[in-house]
Amino acid sequence: MEDIKYSDKEIAIFKGLIQLIREGVNPYSIKVSDIAKAANIGKGTIYDYFGSKEEVISKAIIYSVGEEIKTITDRIKTKESFKDRFYEVLDTIEKNINDKVSILSILVSSGGIEKFYEFLRDKEYTISNFIELVHLEIKELLDFGRTEGIITAKETEFHQIMTVLGVISSFSYYYNNKDFHKNISTKEAKDTVYRILLKSLN
Amino acid sequence: MEDIKYSDKEIAIFKGLIQLIREGVNPYSIKVSDIAKAANIGKGTIYDYFGSKEEVISKAIIYSVGEEIKTITDRIKTKESFKDRFYEVLDTIEKNINDKVSILSILVSSGGIEKFYEFLRDKEYTISNFIELVHLEIKELLDFGRTEGIITAKETEFHQIMTVLGVISSFSYYYNNKDFHKNISTKEAKDTVYRILLKSLN
Amino acid sequence: MEDIKYSDKEIAIFKGLIQLIREGVNPYSIKVSDIAKAANIGKGTIYDYFGSKEEVISKAIIYSVGEEIKTITDRIKTKESFKDRFYEVLDTIEKNINDKVSILSILVSSGGIEKFYEFLRDKEYTISNFIELVHLEIKELLDFGRTEGIITAKETEFHQIMTVLGVISSFSYYYNNKDFHKNISTKEAKDTVYRILLKSLN
Amino acid sequence: MEDIKYSDKEIAIFKGLIQLIREGVNPYSIKVSDIAKAANIGKGTIYDYFGSKEEVISKAIIYSVGEEIKTITDRIKTKESFKDRFYEVLDTIEKNINDKVSILSILVSSGGIEKFYEFLRDKEYTISNFIELVHLEIKELLDFGRTEGIITAKETEFHQIMTVLGVISSFSYYYNNKDFHKNISTKEAKDTVYRILLKSLN
DNA sequence: GATGAATGAGTGTTCATTCAT
DNA sequence: TATGAATGAACACTCATTCAT
After folding, report:
1. What is the pTM of this model?
2. Confidence of residue C135 (pLDDT cuts 50, 70, 90)
3. Is residue A59, in this structure, part of any structural domain at all?
C-alpha cells in the first residue's frame, strides 16, 4: 500500500468534508458548495484539485480511513500487554462508532461502500489495501498474545483472525444497539467479548 | 413488530425496486422512472401509493428485510439439529452476501443505513424491530443447542448472543474478502466459525 | 434531401428560437431558459425533445433555412417572367437580409456556420443539401430565361450559375452596406445587378 | 481609417489568438486560458492589456483583417496588368478561404460578424473602415483596367464595383463548395469569373 | 510588470413530482 | 384508476476575472 501524497489544500478539503460526514450529514446529500464552505474555499477551487464531486468524496474517505488506521496503530503501540492492546481497540471503536468514515464502517459494510462510491472500485483508490493492513495489525496483536503466553492453543491463523474480527464486530454491534442491552454496561460488554476471545484462542 | 399489509401493486413496486438493487444498481442513483419501469407501471402510479421516492425505497428495504427474515426462519426450521441450523444460517449468508438489501447488510452496517435513508429513522418504519426478531431467533437457536446438549457452559445469555453474532459477522467478512483467504475454502471457513462458536459456548 | 418530420412541440421550440435570433440576439449567448421562455414551455421540456442546447439550435437553423427555401420557391413560382422572378429573389433578400438564419447567410458565410455549430457538420443535419436545392432553383430560373429568349448566349452552365450567384451576392453586399452607397437607391441597385446579369448571360 | 498602434505584447496576444482560430477552433469556445497559452503568457497579463476577453478577440480580428488587407494590397501592386492583378486577388482568396479571420469572411458575412462580436459594433473598432479601404482598392483596380484599355464600356462606377464584388463572391462560393463542381477546375473557375467580369465591364 | 491560484456568478442538464387526460 | 408529458427547483461544473505575490 503506497502512500499517496496530498497537498495542503487537498487535505484541507478532505478535513472539511470528513467533518461534515462526522456531523451526520448523509454523504449522498452533500453538495459541492457544502464541501467548499466546510473547507472555507471557493467552489471552483475544488475543481482545481479534483475532477468531480465523486472523486473528492472517494479520496476523502480513503484518506480518512488511512489516517484512522495510523492513529489506531499508534495508540495500540502505547500499550504494553495483549489485554491492554485489545481493550484499546475496543476503546477506539467506542469513540468512532458513529463515524461513518471509520475503518470499521468500511470493514463491516459487506463491500457496500464501493456500491455507493463507484470511484472506490478503481484499483488506484481501492480500499482492499486497508484490509491487508488490518490483517497485519491483527497478526501482530496475536503474536503479542502468544509471546505473553495468553494465547496457548494451536488454532490455525485463520481461526485466530476470524475470532478477533468476530469479537470486534459483535462489540460494535452491541454499541450500535445499546438500546437492546440496557442492562449491559459497556465495561461488561468489553469484558464479555474479551472472554469470548480468550475461550476461542485457548 | 406488527406486520404492515401492502397491496399487490405496492408489493409489485417493491419487488421491481429490490430486483434493481440486487442487480447492483447504486440505490442512490435509482430514479423514479427506473422504479416505474422495473415495476412495469407508470411513473405517476408510484405517487398514488407512496408520498415520495424516499418513502418507496425505505419501505421496500423494510419489506425486503422482513421477507428475508421469514425465509431464513422457515429454512432454519426445516433443520433438526443445532449444527444443521447454524450451517443453514451460514448457507443463507453465502447466498445473500452480495445482496445490499439483506438483513445482514442492515445488521452489520453499524447503523449506516439510516444515515443514508433518513426515512428509516422514523419510528413507524424503524428497522429496530428486526434487531429484536433476530435476537429471538438467536435465542431459539441457543435453546435448541442447550436441549441437544451441545451447549453446556453456563455463560450469560449476552455472552452467547455476542458469540453467535460475532461468528456470523466474521464469516460474512470472510466471504466478502475471499481474495485475502484464497487458501481457505468456504467449507473450512464454516467449520472454523462453528469451532469458534462451540469453544465460546462451552 | 429528405424531409425530417418534427412534432408540433419541436416546431414550437424552433419558432421561438428563430424569433429570438431574428430579433438580433447573438445565437451564442442564447440560454436554454431563453429558448424555453420564447417557446412558452418549461426548461425541462426542451430536453424531452432534444439532447442538448447545441442540438436545438442546430436543428432550428436547418429547419428555418428549409422553410425559407420553400417560401422563396413558392413566391418565385407566382411570377411569370424571368425578370419578375429575378426581382422576386432580390425582394426576398431585401426582406431577409437582417435575418441571421437566412439561406443567404448560410450560402455566403464561407462555410462559417459549421465552424460555429459543430452539430451542423454531422451528415444527418448537413446544410450541403441546401446548396443542391439552390442550384436546382437557379437552373430552373435560367431555363425560364432561355425559354423566354432573354438569355441567348451559349455560355457554360457553370458560367451562368456563377453569374447569378455573383449578382445575388453583390446585391446583398450593397444592401448590407447601404451607408457607403447613399446616392444609390435600392431600385437602382436592383436594376444595376439585373443589367450585370443580362450582360454576362448574353 | 486611422492606424491603431499596438505594443509588442498586444500583437503577440493577437497572433496567438489568430493562430488558434486559423487552426479551426470555434472562436466562441476559445477560453482566456487558451489565448494566454497560445501567446505564451500568463492569464492575468491579458487583463493588463485588454479589458475583457471580448475585447481581445474583437481587436485581434480587426488587427488581423488590417494586416491581411496590407498584404493583399502589397501583393497586387507587384502585378503589372489588370488581369494579373485580378487573378492575384483570386489567388489570395484561394489561399485564405479557410481562414475564418480573413477579410473575405468579414465582407461576405452579411454583417454577421458584428452579431457575434458585439464589440465590433462600437465605432472605435468598427469594421466599416475596411469596407472603405476595399472600395478604394477596387476603384484603383478599375482605373488600371481602364488605363490599359481592357475596360471600355461607360458603365457607372457602382455597376463596376458591384461586378467586381460579385465575381469575387461567386469565386469564393465556388471554392467553398468545390464538391458541387467536381468537374470544374480552379483554373476554369478563375477564367470563368474573369470572363463574367469582362462581359459586364464591356 | 507578470503570474496563476482562487473565486463565484452563471448555466446546462437532471429528475422528483404534478396533473390533465 | 393509471399515465407520462410537462415542469422548474436544484446542483455540478465552467471559466472570465481578480489580486496577492
Report:
1. 0.84
2. confident
3. no
